[in-house]
Specification:
Beta Polymerase, domain 2; Hydrophobic Seed Protein; seven-stranded mixed beta sheet; 24 helices; HD domain-containing protein; metal ion binding
Length: about 475
């Protein structure tokens, strides 16, 4: 959300306000002409930013807080940090929070992104504040004092504009990775997301400092990985850079284990790691699907057995479920994501049922969403083998069509779909709550999965009576 002109003018009457960070970088990328290398001014100013960060110089923080208070809600993220959270008052609309900061100096006192002495000073020049940024493409400020001129007034002391034109990720200074080791993973994320290269000296610095990624919390690593998986069309670019730089073995030793594992035989052109990251590129842009694609063959290095003319990986789906759970738990993913990804990894080798009965049982095991996700995972898996054919795609399409036809008949797939429930069973047969009731319901579900036409109360109760003699 951009601040309205009246707020910009109010601040500029006492100080100077700039847009900083990713919004300036993305304005440039959005408006840069590939033919001339120039900026299309109309596109530059019309860029639809989701988040905008501002920097204010030459204005004391108390005056800034007081001035902003006329227009919205002001909250200090920390007076010592010089960062204000501002939410504009907009009638009948839920406004987003905007970060407005004062220039600050950060002095490292140890490893980690919190080991700093921070001092903000409204009189610091904007160029000095930009010097604490991570990469040159993010170290550009936009002076918004006179936006009517339409010609962007960029403050670019580190030549970030040229690096954007050259599609390069370059560190602002040699200290950036020691100051916050997460920036090494962020460089790979940006390279994948923008399809940029990492500048040579910057990449050397990442390789040199790769072990420092161990000092970063798993939650922060997860957030950066998620951005790579969800915002990049080809996350494999960043994952390859992680492997080449040494970050992969520090964060995902389980994935590193597949780098040199070949898959001889007629199905796979690539080694396990390369196949896995190509699968991510082909998977739909959802976190669960891309994590499942990344991890679906995670156990292959441990399950590999070579024979003359090929190799097999029996049990890698089952062991992969266990490894995927451990890896995702280590990175503090939610229980819901872990269970969904683990299910997809466990079932990714599913066979195509040849009958409606088999299709119903597959849906009962993984759910309607789960079975469609498995189809998309199989599609990504096949395309990433490097030897997939149009026939493989057609076979998946036919399977999906048959599946949809079965689902549209609305047969029962779960216990909740039965025409009887636990209360009815307990009342009819004078049972108390307990495991016996659950066992009866599960057997009834088996009964109607094979014969959905029998999902009628009287038929189910007859079957329950018969079952109670054996349950």
């Amino acid at each position: 959300m951009y601040l309205p002109k009246k707020i910009l003018d109010s601040i500029n009457s006492l100080g100077q306000i700039y847009e900083v960070g990713g919004v300036v970088r993305d304005r440039i990328r959005y408006s840069l002409s590939l033919d001339t290398g120039g900026i299309d001014h109309h596109k530059f100013w019309s860029y639809p930013a989701e988040e905008v960060d501002y920097l204010v110089t030459g204005m004391p923080i108390d005056a800034l807080i007081s001035g902003l208070g006329y227009y919205g809600q002001v909250e200090l993220a920390g007076r010592s940090f010089g960062v204000i959270k501002f939410k504009l008052h907009i009638a009948n609309c839920q406004a987003k929070t905007v970060d407005i900061a004062l220039p600050r100096k950060e002095t490292s006192t140890g490893l980690g992104h919190r080991d700093f002495e921070i001092e903000f000073d409204p009189d610091l020049p904007v160029e000095q504040d930009l010097g604490r940024r991570d990469f040159t493409v993010n170290a550009i400020a936009l002076n918004v004092a006179n936006i009517k001129s339409r010609i962007p007034n960029l403050i670019d002391p580190y030549n970030g504009l040229q690096d954007i034109k050259d599609r390069l990720i370059r560190m602002v200074n040699p200290r950036v990775f020691k100051e916050d080791p997460l920036r090494m993973l962020r460089a790979c994320q940006f390279a994948a997301r923008f399809q940029f290269s990492i500048e040579q000296d910057t990449f050397k610095a990442i390789k040199k400092n790769a072990r420092l990624i161990r000092t970063v919390s798993p939650e922060r690593i997860q957030q950066e990985l998620n951005k790579m998986l969800l915002k990049a069309d080809q996350p494999s670019i960043g994952l390859w850079l992680m492997q080449r730089s040494g970050l992969l073995k520090e964060i995902f030793p389980e994935l590193e284990a597949g780098v040199d594992v070949t898959q001889p035989g007629g199905y796979h052109r690539y080694k396990v790691f390369e196949h896995s990251i190509k699968s991510v590129d082909y998977a739909p842009k959802s976190l669960e699907m891309r994590l499942a694609a990344l991890l679906h063959d995670i156990a292959k290095p441990r399950c590999r057995e070579v024979f003359e003319g090929g190799a097999h990986f029996y049990g890698h789906d089952k062991l992969g479920e266990k490894i995927a759970k451990e890896l995702l738990e280590r990175l503090k993913y939610s229980g819901q994501i872990i269970s969904r990804v683990a299910l997809l990894v466990r079932r990714h080798m599913f066979a195509f049922p040849q009958t409606e009965k088999g299709l119903r049982r597959l849906v009962a095991k993984v759910g309607i969403k789960g079975v469609y996700d498995l189809i998309e995972l199989r599609r990504a898996d096949i395309r990433a083998q490097g030897r997939g054919t149009e026939e493989d795609d057609r076979e998946l399409d036919h399977f999906e069509q048959a599946l949809t036809e079965v689902i549209n008949k609305n047969p029962p797939f779960t216990i909740n779909d039965l025409e009887v429930d636990g209360n009815i069973v307990m009342t009819e047969f004078h049972l108390k709550p307990g495991p016996k009731v659950g066992r009866v319901l599960r057997r009834l579900l088996d009964f109607v999965l094979d014969h959905p036409e029998n999902n009628k109360k009287d038929l189910l109760l007859d079957e329950a009576a018969r079952l109670l003699d054996t349950v």
